[in-house]
Write a structure and sequence with these properties.
single chain, 41% helix, three-stranded parallel β-sheet, 15% strand, Glycosyltransferase, 351 residues, EC 2.4.-.-, Rossmann fold, 16 helices
């Protein structure tokens, strides 16, 4: 993994480590950055802690350290959850570290080339891997257009049913009635800047209902300034990253997803598992495989922020629709539960 904090791929890796460990597998986790927030199980190896007095030798030393750890672990299967768009780095890793036929590569975004380098060399190489796991049917179809892979498998992200109990915990302070959005504060992907401006003109905002945003990231200061410049301090709250976001999600009226691109957004699955209704853009991958429009939430025309505003107003004002969607939340995502999806991972690993 790149790290164990912040994003859906990272959380998916952490959850999988726990499930494998509980199933009596010997689990090792290698992280490339010293960022650990999600709980995990297994032996952790932190490559980021490797340092060298000469900066130019640092990456080379990390490469040989990774090779040494890789050989020490000597796993039956290696699951690669990293982003993989630096071509030279990936060439070096395949030349000096990875055993391709033992490796399962994962793709967690509709932006496939974040996880699959563009060079055709890698298409042929990945086709020799144990498998390429994509997390949605949308990603599966897009990946098929790149190359005639014969080892593609779709295994969606899953949630651990223990989050239902975690959702009963108290939040840090009283928020009153609120609506929530959750994700890494990275505007080019999550578009929280545009969401803030859209939400400011909604009916719930005008009635004093907070929009609470959970998450951290590089654009925190930009969002903070945006809120201040538009005098929205009493309407929008940035609460930062929470190790346990589930009470906040469960106690919210509904959750909004305003992303430009997704894979299999865990936040939608987890919200529905917590019986929280969702309103989401119909991104090219993910939401339509989770949300049934007007059954457990609302799917909004992709990237139409005016339509998103109207959907927020509708979910807030239409009590009949809201209660109907809320009734169907939990049952709609049973197919994404750990007890269902984990069996697909076991089948792959043991093949």
């Amino acid at each position: 993994m790149d790290c164990l904090t912040g994003g859906g791929a990272e959380k998916a890796a952490a959850l999988l480590s726990e499930s494998l460990y509980d199933a009596h597998y010997e689990v090792s986790i290698i992280v490339m950055k010293d960022l650990i927030d999600y709980s995990f199980k297994g032996t952790l190896y932190n490559i980021r802690m490797v340092k060298h007095s000469f900066l130019n030798f640092s990456n080379l030393k990390k490469l040989f350290c990774l090779r040494r750890i890789y050989k020490k672990i000597n796993a039956d299967v290696y699951l690669d959850f990293r982003v993989r768009y630096h071509t030279i780095n990936e060439v070096l890793l395949h030349l000096f570290v990875f055993k391709i036929r033992k490796t399962v590569f994962t793709i967690h975004s509709y932006k496939v080339h974040n996880y699959l380098p563009k060079k055709h060399f890698f298409y042929h190489l990945y086709n020799k891997a144990k498998a390429i796991v994509v997390v949605s049917e949308g990603i599966l179809e897009k990946t098929k257009t790149l190359f005639d892979f014969d080892n593609l498998i779709c295994i969606p992200n899953f949630y651990n049913k223990s989050i239902v109990n975690q959702g009963d915990n108290e939040v840090d302070f009283h928020l009153g009635s609120y609506i929530i959005a959750v994700g890494r504060l990275k505007n080019e992907v999550k578009q929280f800047d545009k969401l803030i401006l859209a939400y400011a003109n909604t009916i719930p905002a005008k009635r004093g209902i907070l929009l609470v945003i959970l998450g951290e990231g590089k654009d925190h200061h930009i969002l903070k300034r945006l809120i201040e410049d538009h005098h929205l301090e009493s309407t929008i709250k940035l609460l930062g990253f929470k190790n346990n976001p589930y009470p906040y999600i469960k106690k919210s009226q509904f959750l909004i997803l305003s992303s430009k691109v997704e894979g299999c957004p865990m936040v939608l699955v987890e919200a529905l598992a917590l019986e929280t209704v969702v309103v989401s853009f119909n991104c090219k991958s993910g939401p339509a495989e989770i949300i049934t429009h007007e059954k457990n939430g609302l799917l909004v025309r992709n990237q139409d922020f005016n339509a998103l505003k109207m959907a927020i107003d509708r979910m807030y004002t239409d009590s009949e629709l809201y209660l109907k969607c809320k009734k169907n939340t939990k049952s709609s995502v049973y197919k994404f539960s750990d007890e269902v999806v984990f069996n697909s991972w076991l089948k792959l690993i043991n093949t």
